Amino acid sequence: MPKAGASAQAGAGAPRRAMKGGDVTGGQTKADTSDMSFEELLRLQRHTRPKAYKQLGAGKSAKTRSPTQPACVADKHRPLEMSAKARVPFLRQVVPVSKKVARDPRFDDLSGEYNPEVFDKTYQFLNDIRAKEKQLVKKQLKKHRSGEEHERLQQLLQRMEQQEMAQQERKQQQELRLALKQERRALAQQGHRPYFLKKSEQRQLALAEKFKELKRSKKLESFLSRKRRRNAGKDRRHLPLSKE
After folding, report:
1. Which of 54, 139, 192, 200 could form a disulfide with 187 if both were Cys (CB 3.0 to 4.6 A apart)?
2. 3-state helix, strand and coil shares in percent for the chain, rounded to the nearest 5
3. Which tens digits make up the pLDDT trace of 5-56?
4. Above 80 in pLDDT, residue 106?
5. How many CB atoms lie within 10 A of CB 130?
């Protein structure tokens, strides 16, 4: 029995000897674990209370940290560090791309003010291109006498003719405005007070010029007949329904 007690005391004193001068009293450990091997640390953890062992590890970390050690300054050119907890988006921007801003020259101040006379003179070459395209459509229309291609070409030719008529009407209005402007300028040079026409008067003058042009081209009767049919249809809508 005395031998067994001696071996037990020797086993209990092994961690104390491994601590190199350390002492364990009342569950508190006082030693420096920086020079201990991993096997001795495991033995010390096994024979020491968990709270005392944590306090011992905390004392070691506090001892290794120097209060005067400068903090590490992060480099601004370092790679971007992404968190593993945040989900990476499916469409992510790998390379920064400058956004292209669409600019409409019709509503942008950088393009200057719209001047119809200058615009027509600048893009006058488009009239020749439109005339060639119109002739080409007419040739294609002769080849296709029926079918969907014939209807498509017929609609295209009709749209081109309407655009040409609208352009001619716009040109006549510009010429009328230019003539009125020159007349006002001549009156101002003679000492008369300039008179500016109202919009209703300008419309009446434009309508009179249109009638003169239709009469000159012998299309006045067809234009008046279409106008009468259109007005009759408008009047028919306002008539009450007949009771049968």
Report:
1. 192
2. 65, 0, 35
3. 444 444 444 444 444 444 444 444 444 666 778 788 888 878 777 777 676 6
4. no
5. 13
Write the Ramachandran bin of 240: left for phi over 0, alpha for psi from -120 to 50, otherwise beta: beta
What's at 38, amino acid-wise? F
Whether residue 45 contacts residue 53, with contact meaning beta carbons closer than 8 Å, is answered with: yes
The predicted model scores a pTM of: 0.46
How many CB atoms are located within 10 Å of the residue 120 CB? 15
- Six-digit token string for 223: 């234009």
Distance CA 92, CA 97 (A): 12
Q: Which H or E element spans position 209? A: helix 199-216
- The confidence score (pLDDT) of residue 175 equals 85
Q: Which of 197, 209, 226 lies closest to 168, judged by CA?
A: 209
Instruction: Tally Cβ neighbours within 10 Å of residue 41.
Output: 15
- Residue 24 neighbours by CB under 8 Å, 6+ apart: 15, 16, 30, 48, 52
The 10 Å Cβ neighbour count of residue 150 is: 14
In whole angstroms, how far apart are CA 37 and each of 3, 53, 122, 173, 192? 30, 15, 92, 103, 115
Q: Over the stretch 181-198, which tens digit does the pLDDT of each residue have?
A: 888 888 888 888 877 888
CA distances from 32 to 13, 18, 58, 60, 66 (A): 17, 11, 12, 7, 17
